[in-house]
Request: fold
Amino acid sequence: MPVLNRLAIVVQRCHPDVVGGSEALAWQYAQLLAGDYDVEILTSCALDYQTWNNVLPVGIERRDGIAVRRFATAFPRGLYFNQLHRRLLADFSASEGRDASDRLPWRNALAEEFIRFQGPWCPGLVEHVAQQHNSYHKLIFCTYLYPTTYFGLQQTPPEQRILVPTLHDEPPAYLPAYAAMARDCRLVWLTEAERTLGTALWNISHGDVVGMGVDAMAAAPASPASVPYLLYCGRIDESKGCRELIDAFLALRRLRREPFRLVLTGSDHLGLPDRTDIEFLGFVEEARKRELMAGARAFVMPSRYESFSIVTLEAMAQSTPVIVNADCAVLAEHRERSSAGFAYRGRAGLIEAMQDALDLDDSARRAMGARGRDYVMRRHAHAAVRARLLAVVA
Reply:
C-alpha cells in the first residue's frame, strides 16, 4: 500500500541556478505541498539541459526543508541524439498537412530511442521509482518531454501517476508514444489553452486546470529611465522568438523619431548586437527584475512555445502592459482574459504592437496595467493554486 503522507515530484533538473519553466513549477509545487505532505524531489545531477553532464553529487540534499534526491546521468547528450532530432524534424516537416495523430507515426522503439538519448537518462532514478513507488502516496511528473517522466511513469502504477505535461506545440509532442503515456495518468494543466492543445495533439480532454502561482505579487517601484524602454526577460535565443524581436525593434527604431530602448535580462544564446539602444543586463536579482518590469512601457514575450509563461504574469503583476505572440494559444489566453496588452502575429504585427505600447498615454497604460494585475491576483495567487493542487493530489 502507498504511504499516504509522502509525495515524490520527478523533474529533470532541480537547483537554484537552473532557469526553466518546468523546473520552477516542480519546485513551486513542492513548496505548496510541503505543509501537508513529506515531499521528495527525484532529479538528475545535471544543470545544463544541452549536455546533461553530471555536475552535482549523487545523493540527498535538503533545500528549504524539502529532500532533493539526485541520480547520475548515464551519458551526455551527443551526436546520436542530434541525428535522431534531425530525422524527427525532417519527418515532421514532410508530413505537414496531415492530422496531428499522423504527423510523426514513429513506432515506440524509435520514439523511445529518441526520448532516452535526448536525456537526461538516469537509470538509477527509474529503478528507484520501480522499487520504491509504494513508499509514496502519489508521484508527480513535471513536463512530458524527458526520459525521467516517460520511463518513470512506466514504473508507476496508474493510480499513483500525476502528469503535469507543460505541453506546447512543438514537433516531439506529436510522437504517439507521448499520447499513449498521457492517457493513463491523472493530468494537471496550467491553462485551458494547454488542455485544448492536449485534445488536439493527444486526443485527451480529461484533467484539471491547476495553474501556477506567481511569486512576484508585491508591487515594486518603477526603475528610473531616461528614455522609455521595452523589456524582455528569460532565455534569449531563436526558439523564444528573440531574433524576430530584435529585427522588429531595429525596424521600429528606423521608423520612430522618439528615442526608446530594448532592455533584456537572462542568458544570451543568440548573440545580441552591440548597440547603445539595446541593453543586455544578464541575470538580475528578483527585486531588480520587478523594478524593471514596473518601469517598462511594455513587457514583450515573442515566444510561440509557452505552456504558461510565468515571467509574463510576473510583468502583469507589476501593472505592466504585455505584448504577446498570438500564435501561442496560452499567451493569447492570458491577454484575452485580462485585456492587459497586445497580441500580434508576425514581424509586422510585432512592430505595430510595440508602436501602440509606446504610444499609450499614462492614463491608458495605468488602466491596462491595473487589469493585468487584477487578473494575476484573482487567478494565480498561491493560495488558490495550492487549493486546486491539494484537491488533485488527495
Remarks:
- The longest strand covers residues 229-236.
- Residues 33 and 107 are 38 Å apart (CA to CA).
- The two ends are 15 Å apart (CA to CA).
